[in-house]
Design a protein that fits this description.
about 475 residues, Growth Hormone, Chain: A, two-stranded antiparallel sheet, 19 helices, about 75% helix
Length: about 475
């Protein structure tokens, strides 16, 4: 990791400790991403389908991480109660990620796994990770210098995306080879490796320096938990996210299920889909980090969420014999979601600038988004189950329950953009102007590349 020549001290830490902490965070994040790659996405959905989960239960599976976000409030109280974030993060993340050893053991022993136990493990994991995430976000906000936060987080997320991409494809290849003869072995091996990654991540977190927490006055619990909602710009961000996740994630639980059951993607091809999106995301994360540091987080977030609105509509037209829209979605997934997630994180960091509410900003944000996603996922599951026998043929194409959800999601996502545009973020340029500047820059680079290409052709023709 490159560092700037100027000092990067943080309160209570030397320059060397800060740089060591930033490097450790990248390595630790790689192992944490490895755990996530092998216990989420196709692995969790695939195992749920193998265990006999129906459409509503698939929706419930997607809703669990959202509803457990309410434990973020508990994290804010624990952080202030104990005055240290490292121990809380290490304990919660370490224990949570180790829970998958239960499923791994039963799968390798060929023991029957009840869906109730499966959901209990997923709930326990997400509760502990919700606590760890709030504590970790507060920790990193103090560790990473603000002037280079966009570039650092962009670089870090890009490297972690590469790890996720490699492990997802590798795990998908193993699942494909074993899906007929011994699918339990494939999932069991994935979870064993994931648990090992989780333990290594916890050990690295324990070594990462922690800046001392800034002293804050004693305030009532109500103020600590809900105080951020009194700040107009942060409240606007929360309203946007509540609306967007309530309406724009109706179909989120069913993309992977649709790939597996209706579009007939083998796991290896799903891995290629992840690799394509991951590679694109890595390339654009580096760019988005630079753009955020130069133009601010708002224009990047608005532009990327606009593109995100298009993506569900691609799934409406895709079929098992016409998969081009899925590959386009993979590319847009890397471009848009990398910028949207990085932009949102930086918006929270920029708007949440009162030290006594540091953890509260993340907790309120996580809970509102979590509850909205929980309601949306459950509602999506109910709709999918009610329309399980829905079939309609238009223009020679058959449309099913999932297509209804994809169409509704795409249209509703655009309805939330005006709410995002109303938010004012310090150090952020105008959205339209930023897009114009970046568009002009892109055109200049394309014209330069075109000139180089034509010149090379002329030289070759002369030779």
């Amino acid at each position: 990791m490159t560092t700037e020549s100027r000092p990067v001290e943080r309160p209570g830490l030397t320059e060397v400790q800060v740089r060591t902490g930033l490097r450790l965070s990248v390595v630790e994040g790689a192992f944490a991403s490895g755990h996530l790659a092998l216990t989420g996405g196709m692995f969790l959905t695939g195992l749920a389908l193998l265990l006999g989960a129906n459409a509503f239960q698939i929706g419930l599976l997607a809703a669990i991480p959202a509803v457990t976000a309410v434990f973020s409030f508990l994290a804010t109280l624990l952080v202030r109660r104990f005055g240290a974030r490292r121990s809380l993060t290490v304990w919660a993340a370490g224990v949570g990620r180790t829970l998958f050893v239960v499923l791994a053991g039963l799968l390798l022993l060929r023991a029957r796994i009840d869906l109730g136990l499966f959901f209990a493990v997923v709930v326990g994991y997400n509760v502990l990770l919700a606590i760890a995430n709030i504590s970790w976000n507060s920790w990193m906000r103090d560790l990473v210098p603000e002037a280079r936060r966009g570039r650092y987080l962009g670089m870090r997320n890009a490297l972690l995306g590469g790890v996720t991409m490699v492990l997802t494809y590798g795990g998908a290849s193993v699942l494909d080879r074993l899906k007929v003869t011994d699918p339990e072995l494939g999932y069991g091996l994935a979870f064993v490796i994931a648990v090992c990654f989780g333990l290594i991540s916890a050990l690295l977190l324990a070594r990462q320096p922690e800046p001392p927490m800034a002293p804050s006055p004693r305030v009532p619990v109500r103020e600590r938990l809900f105080g951020p909602l009194n700040e107009p710009q942060f409240r606007r961000l929360v309203i946007f996210m509540a609306f967007w996740f309530l309406t724009g994630t109706l179909a989120s639980p069913f993309y992977m299920a649709h790939l597996i059951t209706n579009l007939e993607f083998p796991f290896t091809l799903i891995g290629v889909y992840a690799v394509l999106g991951g590679t694109t995301g890595i390339l654009f994360l580096l760019m988005w980090g630079w753009v955020i540091d130069r133009f601010g987080s708002k224009p990047v977030t608005v532009a990327c969420f606009a593109v995100v609105g298009v993506m569900p509509l691609l799934w409406v037209v895709a079929t098992s014999t016409f998969r081009l829209p899925i590959w386009i979605d993979a590319v847009l997934n890397g471009i848009a979601w990398s910028g949207a997630n990085l932009g949102l994180l930086n918006m929270v960091l920029a708007l949440g600038d009162r030290p006594e509410r540091k953890e509260s900003y993340f907790a309120v944000f996580a809970v509102v988004v979590g509850l909205a996603t929980f309601i949306s996922s459950l509602l999506g599951g109910v709709i999918a189950q009610l329309l399980v026998n829905f079939r309609i043929t238009l223009f020679g194409r058959e449309f099913i329950n999932y297509h209804v959800l994809f169409l509704a999601t795409g249209l509703l996502r655009f309805a939330g953009l005006p709410l995002l545009a109303r938010i004012e973020v310090r150090r952020s340029r105008k959205v339209v102007r930023t897009i114009r500047v970046l568009g002009s820059f892109a055109l200049r680079r394309l014209n330069y590349g075109k000139g180089v290409f034509l010149d090379s052709l002329r030289i070759r023709s002369r030779g």
